[in-house]
Sequence to fold (104 residues):
Amino acid sequence: MSENVASFPVADSPSAHDNEQPKTQDVGGVAGQRLASFIERIERLEEEKAALMEDIKEVYAEAKGVGFDVKTMRKLISLRKMDTEKRREADELLELYKAAVGLA
Fold:
């Protein structure tokens, strides 16, 4: 007995409604709409972060292209982020460690 293939349910083909956000609901004390809002904000920020990281990568490539040492630039940026006291402590500790292994 052969069955007609058309009688079986067929999954919807991709269409515009696939891009719609699923309906949210409150479940088990979780506010669905609020949670979805946080997730969407984070996703947008992650996209912005990726774009910024690409921009930073391009600036480092440009600096390298004109002869700057990127590794040293990264270290310098890291040091500039530290407050003066933390930077001083890190420098002293580095000097102590260098002396301990015979590099001083």
In short: Residues 69-104 form one domain. The radius of gyration is 28 Å. The CA atoms of residues 6 and 104 lie 82 Å apart. Residues 2-11 have pLDDT under 50 and may be disordered.
